[in-house]
Every structure is written in C-alpha cells, then in structure tokens.
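Example (one chain per record):
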Amino acid sequence: LRLQWLTALEVRGIRPYLDQQRMLNPAKRTPKKQTAPVVKQLRGGDRSAAARTRVVLEQSFGHLPQADGPFSGRRTELAQIARWVHAARASTQTRPTVVVLHGAPGSGRTALAVRAAHTLKDQFRGACVVDLRGQVTGENPLPTRDALLHLLNRLGAPREQLLFREGASAEQQVRRLSELYHQHLTGTPVTIVLDDATDAGQVRTLVPERSDSLVIVTAREPLELPEDLAAWVHHLPVGALDAAGAEELLREVAEEEETGPYDYPSTDAIVELCGGLPLALRVAGSALGARSRHTLAEDLGAYGPVDPVERALWLRYTDQGDQARRL
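Predicted structure:
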C-alpha cells in the first residue's frame, strides 16, 4: 500500500508540478539571455559614437583658416564679441549668440570672425566656417542642403545618418538634415562662421537654437534676422580703421624696415587713398621699405578715382616683373 501511494503521489502531484516548472522556467530565462548581449552592444556603440564625435569636434579647430597674419585695429570689436558670449553664458536661458558683422568688401569681416573663433576656442567644443558665397561673382550661393551637410560632417555627426531614401526631394532632404543638425548640437556649444551671407532664412536654418553656441555671420549689408529666432542677436558694423589702427597695420606689413623721419601727411594720404580698409592697406603697405611713404602716396594717387582695394592691387601688380604678371 505504501508503494502504491507513493507512486500515485508522484504521478498525480509532484511529477506534473515539476514538469510544469521545467516548462515555465526556460521561457522566463530565455529573454534575459537574449536581451543582455543586445543591451551591452548598444551601450558600447553609443560610447564609440560619442568618442568619435568628441575627437572630430576637437579636430575641427584645426580646419579653421589660419589667424597668424597681422591683425590691427579690431581689438575693440573682438572684445565686444567676447563680452556678448560671456553675457549669454551668464544667462539662465540656453540660447546661441548670433553676431552679424557687416561692412564693405575689404573691411576685414572674415578675418575678424576667424580671429574670434580662435580667440574664444576655450569656450567651445568645436568650430566650423561655411562660405555661403552670397555675393561671389560668377558663382551661385551655396545651397542650404550643402551647408548643412558640411556642418554635420565637420562637427562629428554620424555619417550613416546622412543617407537619404532614393527619390527624396531637395525639400525633404533639407528638412531631415535640419532636424539632425539641431538634434546633434543640442547642448553642444560650438562656434560657426557663416561667411558672405545674404539670405536671412538660410542663416536661421543654420543657427543651432538649443545650445550656447556662437554664430558669427558676415555680410555686406545689415542682415535682419527673424524676430522669433530664439537667440541673442547682435549687429556689429565693421568699418574703416581709425588712424592708430591703420598706422599699426602699415608698420606690420612693411616688407622692409622704414628709414627716415615719420611722415604724417603722407601716412594720412595713404590711409585716405586706401579707404581705411585693412585689405587695401595690407596690400599697399607691403610696398613700404622699397618705397618711402611719400612715394607710396604719390603712386597710389596716380590711379585716379577707383575702388581702394583695386587701387592697391594695381599698384602691386605693376611692381611685378613680366613673368610674375603672366602668372
């Protein structure tokens, strides 16, 4: 009887229970075994992508144009840009600082923007310059799509995200790239130089609104950005150099050391003939040393009423030999 009872208990009670547990337990354990490696892989991929972005952002400063040449007469403007950046950082709102540098060709807008990007490097994690070609003779302005692609590549966005479905329209591509651009730079402060801009709508698309970035826009005329742009917008005219700045630049670019007493009237005439523009002064000033200031002023004045930059270029062109002119 005892043996029969134990057999019945095993068949009707314990064995069915054990069989049921053996069937249920593998089902519970299987998801854990399958998901654990996937989660680990995803986290590893995220770390790898973040590391790549950091490296690309650090390297982006090396792609900026060099700022080793003479830089005179713009320290006041450079200090003003720095103050605007610091004021934005002190605010409780996360907004980019947009500085619109406007002035005539040859006034040094681009040089000032690039110098600011180098000077404020420690305040930002990356930097990029985009030539929008707004007023380049014989060339079309840079499309917004191409500008976004350049910025995303230079600032470390995952390249696999920059692929499009076959047949996607230009408008769809711009919308998708704009979403990626703003998402990628959210919380990441960078410096962006938008050189030679003419389209306020294009500039707005390229302003990363959810970061403490610095966006420096260069334009010939004041560029009025939309009032609803979530950014600290400032306008800074870049005009002719003052007398002290022009004199400093002439001394720095002279090819040879000048001799003789200082010639105030001739210096004033050179500055006036060059319109006080840094580019014209730099080109003309490179003739000093071989020429006295009096001779340089006379030679510049011989070209009549022409554009200051063109006047300086013609002067240095005629200084070259036949072979150099052909080049």
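Caption: DSSP finds twelve helices and five strands in the chain.
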